[in-house]
């Protein structure tokens, strides 16, 4: 079996399209069979979707798994290699599948997502394997060291297992592939360099370097400090939610009181205008009856039109022609009176509306003042609580205390620190990741997935400062040197939402 590694790629869809179809066609005649590994229940044609999703969410997966985000970003996650058998070798489907899985294990990619396809378009059987180099759980890129050598060793071991192929290999040693000859030469060379076991003496393992031991101890202490911080954050979460609930209740009470005051203002104005509406409707009813009574009396109609000329004309008096038309036509007079009554009702309604608006404006201005005072007081209470929690963290979390606690646990002076709902063999780093995920889930459930508040461990460590706008340089205004600004310590206070 001969392995061959192709160039890295950037498109999972293109790679799977190539291995699952005929060249430049939509047919699949050259594909004997295909299957996917660690891609879920999707079909092999759609295996590129979970692969791309894993690569796209690599940073989020690292953060969820507690993996360090530093290091080069993986811009070419697609690994493609082939396994080819000799023209006369006809392994079974199961044997080819086993060889593909062994090759993934030899490369350390057995937990990664992969797609495998067998082709029959050439004289020799061969497999195409496309692998996602990003781990689907941790988001880390696989550390592929000497992959060609690892595949060559795997292929050599695979050929040794096949007895029928071993006989042909022994007879035609001079026709071995280059990678096999290189492997045999490497084995012979290593045998010459390997010391005689009879001359070896039993020696203890060399002690771990001092700097390495100190680095491991420091990392354990830092993990313990993060655990203390996560425990305090979990306790402070209840206090923050309680204070936030009180503040929401105060805000709701203020809006409820303002709504009640607005309704009282409306009812007051309505009661005040009730008598005016009653008087206006009564006067219009009497006037309407009077106009109906004088329908067949031209002289009384004339008196009515001349007396109410300004009212019927909406300000200026009626012209002689209009007066004559109203006196001559009782129907026109009745319509003019109806228009007059409509204008009077509209005018009174506008006056009432203006007074209602004035009173509501006074109510809402008082509400704005009360709301501003309440917001300032609540902001002070939240700032005070944050300061107290930060002071508690500074008082209870220290490097010396964490180191002493770890030392006492190692000596058996105190029991090992373990949470009540902890999983077996849970470390401090695993506990911190679990608690942070619980807190994050709590706030996503409370505020919604699109309005998650700021969480300290997700803030950028070095935020970019805003660009300073400098004055233009002119002959009369030479450039001035910028004074050095003192470095400010980043505020890492326990702040989960914008105000809490």
How would you describe this protein?
The protein is an alpha+beta fold. The protein has 14 helices and 5 strands. A 5-stranded antiparallel beta sheet has the order 1-3-5-4-2, sandwiched between helices. Strand 4 and strand 5 form a beta hairpin. Helix 4 runs antiparallel to helix 5, helix 8 runs parallel beside helix 14 and helix 11 crosses helix 12. The longest helix is centred in the middle third of the chain and has 84 residues. It starts with a strand and ends in a 53-residue tail after the last helix.
Give a topology summary.
Layout: E1 2-5, H1 12-20, E2 31-37, H2 48-56, H3 58-65, E3 78-84, H4 93-106, E4 114-119, E5 126-132, H5 147-161, H6 163-171, H7 178-193, H8 210-293, H9 298-307, H10 309-312, H11 320-328, H12 330-396, H13 399-411, H14 428-447
Antiparallel strand pairs: 1-3, 2-4, 3-5, 4-5
Helix pairs in contact: 4-5, 8-12, 8-13, 8-14, 9-11, 11-12
Largest sheet: 5 strands, antiparallel
Sequence of secondary-structure elements: EHEHHEHEEHHHHHHHHHH
Q: How far do the termini sit from each other?
A: 63 Å
Give the overall pLDDT as a whole number. 82
Number of strands: 5
Give the class from helix and strand content and strand pairing: alpha+beta
Helix content: 55-70%
**Order of strands across the widest beta sheet?**
1-3-5-4-2
The number of helical elements comes to 14
